[in-house]
Amino acid sequence: MFMLIFAKAAFSAGLAFGLAKDGAYAEMIPYGVPSLVMFGACAPIAAHLADKWNRRGMIAVFFFGIGGASIATSFASNPFEIGVGLTVLGGFAAIYHPIGIAMVVEGGGNVGWRLGANGVWGNMGVAAAPLITGFILAGYDWRLAFVIPGVIAILIGIGFVYFNRAGRMKSPDPCPREKAMVGFMPGWKRALLALALVSSAGGFLFGALTFVIPRMFEVSMPNVSVDIAVTGALAAIVYAVAAWAQLIVGRIIDRRPIKPVLLVVAMGQPVMIGVMATQSNYGLLAASLLAMAFVFGQIPITDAVITRYVPDVWRTKVLSVKFMLNLVIGAMSLLTARAILAGGGGFEQLMVVLAIVAVLVFLSALLLPAQTDTDSEPVTAPSPA
To answer: Going by C-beta distance under 8 Å and a sequence separation of 6 or more, which residues neighbour residue 157?
Structure first.
């Protein structure tokens, strides 16, 4: 959620800083790029600290860090200061993915369902960002859009620390397969190569679509509404409904081989993103919903691949590299979006480019080993430093 507040508030903040209305959004986009770079680049650092210290302690730092950074960003007096605040916010936000996901899959078992549920909650934050920010912007200003979530994050952090110290958080006992997994499973190198390529292309799509859809709705849905609160609510509905695809996909991969499921999900992305390029108004709304369902549905699959091939002692490190690729390349998608929009290409041309990138997701998925639920003996590997 925090990483997408700026996506909705960028236009209003740009106007507040005196930028021209017809160029404010494109001019503000670059100031959000460093935050996304930090969001990915700091993931390995967070993973290393968690392995040296502990996972729950780092999650507490996450809550307090993003809350404080968000509040600090609200005091910015120019675009550069917003960029600095967002960069710090991105560094703290990097903590969650490699550590939180590793905690979610602890113990093994039906990790697909757990990853799906975690993903739904995460994408409810994606949905809440344009909704809450849109209503705040409609009645107040962009600064409050950073203050309110920041305060809430700090309060949640206090609650997290309390429950942890009270002994109410316990890791599940490992299932038999998890106990037997003392090393990397056969085929892990090919699986992680496929995962790296899928995550890179998928991160580009996720970063671009979650950032531009709120603004795209403002511009391309004139027969529906031009009100910033309404278009923000519609973007939130798209994200919220599409997020449930993760539960469906998560349940399927607990029962079926992963590769066929990934190929189906990957195939749907270029098709529906391509349709988005041709639609407006309610047609765009429907196409966006389906496109985001396929994009979100990919998330638990890639994380489940890691649990099938990588032992727990290595997961935070592997997850951190995966998210670094995913998010740093996602940040590059914003520069691509800015170049296309500032050059007069429009959202239609941007969607065509994203559809081409989505084809790369499908091609990369073909590299994944055919059977990811192997009972073969694990391959010994060195202990992490």
So the answer is: 60, 62, 63, 64, 67
